[in-house]
Amino acid sequence: MEASRDDFVIAIRSAFLKKGNKQRFSLIFLIIFSIIFLALGKLNLKAVDYIRISINEIVYRSAFIASLPENYIQKGYNTAVNHFNVYNDYNKIKSENQKLKSEKISNNFIVQENKRLKKIVDDYVTISDVIVAKVLIDKKSPFLRSIIINKGSKDNVKLGMAVIDESYLAGKVVEVNFTTARILLLSDLNSKIPVTIEPIGLQSILSGTGNNDGKIQYLKEEYKIENESTVYTSGSGGIFKAGIPIGKIKNIPNVEIGVDFFSDFTQLKFVKIVSFQKEEN
Amino acid sequence: MEQFAKNTIFKGLLKYAPIALLFISVLNEFDFNYLDLKYFSFNFPFILIFYWSLKKSESLGYGLIFIAGLINDVVVGFPMGISSLSYLLICGFTAYLRNITLRPNMLKDWVFFLLTTVFASSLSYSLLVLFFSFKLNYADLLVNLLFTFLFYGIFAYLFEIYNKLAFDKKDD
Fold first, then answer.
1. What pLDDT score does B3 carry?
2. CATH 2.40.10.340 region(s) of chain A?
3. Which residue, A79, A191, A66, is CA-closest to A139?
4. What is the pLDDT of residue B171?
5. CATH for the stretch A192-265
6. Is the sign of the CA dihedral A230, A236, A239, A242 positive or negative?
7. Which residues of A touch B75 (CB under 8 A)?
């Protein structure tokens, strides 16, 4: 019994403390170094931030180059899938187009009226210069939903700016480097956005599910939300302006109130980075 | 003679393939996630590090594994150091297994791989949740672990063939 415990201790000591064959560092030294790295990251020191930003810049560019072959395969796969869906998509788009044409006419009037009313209530109505950014890395990690874009502090990208795909909200900027930035997508579990559900006008919080959809949180059970209700930003918190379309309420397995995003986060190539300011009279 | 020299250079290059593959995989995360199969994902670096540090520890330097972990954290968006820690723990486990094993056995390695990945993943995700307030989907984590465990058999078989080709498998 004593001998087997000794053997265990010797094996562990040899594994962690001794330098292995042709190894420059011992394991324990590097493990302690990793823990120091983690602790410094938690402390948010300025010097550590600069090191982190420099590493990020190098790694993002390298990852972009390393991802090219996989992106090529992915593109080929998507093209093949699109070819199979072309006929169904055509019919769907044709009927949607007819519907939209009729809606557009009445919408023009509503948009103008809305602008006038927003001026009266002093809401966020204008956006700053739009920064168009290319998606460098789109990892689709099973745990975190984020993308890397090719614009950073050099191009006036700031933390918290809204990321728009076409005219739909896709996420927000959570990390800014000199020439790159990380966007946390709405589908990420850590994403929390204040939203309004129309037409009933319910205020709530939208969170990601970690897959390609979202869920409505912190809502009393007494509220009944119809499927196909539309989810917009509410403007609470002052980060985003009110009324940016996000998605539609939909039945999603294992999710109480699911949201199907308008934007397809798996197909992001270019996005717009915007911040919102009050219009000066 | 020329043929011999070419062969030696080629074999020399083959020896760097595991570390090159590790860096490509952390930069590129080749885990077929783009297929968007529900729940499907696996951790290729875990498999690669476990196999090569068990069978040929000198083919993956600990320093390079540490750097690969940092790169993985930057690409995925985790706090820097978390992947390095889990990768190095895997190296520690394999070094321990090497020390206590007299006759290597694929099945034992596989079971030990399960224990190692469960421990390394649990520790890193606990740190993420408890100290960095990350929200993670535990079902996805479990499925990722399961697929990583299952895929070990396939990749270990492929690596075994490669090991014989590139290293002549003299010292196993």
1. 59
2. 124-187+270-278
3. A66
4. 46
5. 2.40.10.350
6. positive
7. 59-60, 63, 137, 139
pTM of the predicted model over 0.95:
no
Query: Which candidate, A207, A218, A247, A220, places its Cα nearest to that of A231?
Result: A247
pLDDT digits (tens, 9 = 90+) for A217-262: 877 767 777 777 888 888 777 677 788 888 888 877 766 788 888 8
User: pLDDT band at B34, cuts 50/70/90?
Assistant: low
Is-contact A227 A258, C-beta < 8 A?
no
CA A4 distance to own-chain centroid? 52
Residues of chain A with CATH 2.40.10.350: 192-265
- DSSP-assigned beta bridge partners for residue A260: A248
Category of A243 on φ-ψ map: left (φ > 0), alpha (ψ -120 to 50) or beta: left
Do residue A143 and residue B27 have CB atoms under 8 angstroms apart?
A: no
Q: How far apart are CA B134 and CA B126, in angstroms?
A: 9
Quote the CA–CA distance of B7 and A94 in Å, as a whole number.
Answer: 62
CA distance B92 to chain A (A): 6
CB distance B33–A140 less than 8 Å? yes
Check residues A1 and A192 and name the one with the higher pLDDT. A192
Percent of chain A with pLDDT over 70: 88
| Contact: A38, B57; criterion CB under 8 Å | no
Most confident of the ranges A17-21, A215-219, B160-164: B160-164
Q: Cβ–Cβ of A34/B88 closer than 8 Å?
A: yes
ipTM above 0.85 for this complex: no
Q: Are B132 and B104 in contact (CB under 8 A)?
A: no
How far is Cα A201 from Cα A74, in angstroms, rounded to an integer?
Answer: 40
**Chain segment B38-71, per-residue pLDDT in tens:** 667 788 889 999 999 888 877 788 889 999 998 8
CATH topology for A124-187+270-278 is: Thrombin, subunit H (2.40.10)
Handedness of CA A183, A186, A187, A192 (dihedral sign): positive
pLDDT for position B48: 92
* A89–chain B nearest CA distance, Å: 20
Rounded Cα distance, B135 and B128, in Å: 8
